[in-house]
Amino acid sequence: MNRKLRIGLVGLGNIGTTHSRYLKEMENVELTAVCDVVAEKAERFSKETGAKAFVSHRDMFADVDAIIIGTPHYDHVPIAVDAFAAGVHVMVEKPITVHVNGAKIMLAAYEEAKKTHPNLVFGIMFNERTFPHYKKIKELLNEGILGKLTRFTWINTKWFRSQAYYDSGGWRATWAGEGGGILTNQCPHNLDMYNWYFGRPDRVHGVASIGKYHNIEVEDEVSATFYHDSGLVSQFIVSTAESPGTNRMEIVGEHGTLIFENSKILLHKNRKSMLEHSRTTKDGFSGVESWETHIPINHHQPSGHKLVTERFVESILTGEDHLIAHAAEGLDQVMLANAIMLSSFENRMVDLPMCGDAFEAKLGELIKTSKFVKATGGAIGDFR
To answer: What angle do helix axes 14-23 and 305-318 make, rounded to 10 degrees?
Structure first.
């Protein structure tokens, strides 16, 4: 890989700043363009990085080979579609967009563009897949250490956000500006992790509380249940109101239980299958003999945004697939989020895969009736 890849940043809020910092450390990359609809911000980034400033993403395509999209979520679709038409590679921040139909538009545009640009790369920034503890859990599941899976529970309430956070941007926590709350902003990584571990569930039931703890018009607390035809049943509980909050994961299978909490993984390994034991034992009360093992985790391995981008760049420069996550995998994450919300709105079970029309129609109604007005404090960055 002798040549440098010319990269542009679209959206220069908090996450744009994050990307600009590590891009300076990458030897095979040159940041050649920065873009934001706020001209002053684009000019400031230009002076800091030496990249050309743009206020229109279309105008920057002649100066880049690839872009990283870090704008508010609704803008992901038109920016990506325009980039593909110009033969520009795309890394999009999570979520891929707000609703299933929007994701399908992006993916269809990508497939169409590949007819002219067959080596075009489209990745998504699911950087939590690179976190050592989540990677280790994935390895253990791939090895089948638990056998047939029966239950998964994830309580992740370490997403505390204050009212000041929600008041920091006029688009934040509104249906028209952001398209959702905790499922759209904080939890795309969690929902992606679920699909990465277990695959897409077959049915979803969700209960989403709208503005339960904050003066906002979107969800700030969610409880959902996922059902798989294999028999796996999962609970997913998230909130932006709890402090100190909990991040605890339990994965139960016939051969034991895997528990993740406080960046540690504990395995309770059964001596024999609990399902077989239940069928064959003559004792009505005693469970299976088991023992505890603390699973070692290498916390010093590379991870995070930089690693995801490095693999994106490597895929482009070599023509080989090294992506951490393909953008198509973002569709399942958005589908799961949409299904939870649709289930809550309509008080029914939602089958997957789902058609995106019902949720898009509901979202359209919410956008039309939204009258939420907030003061913009500006103390907190304008993305995430």
So the answer is: 60
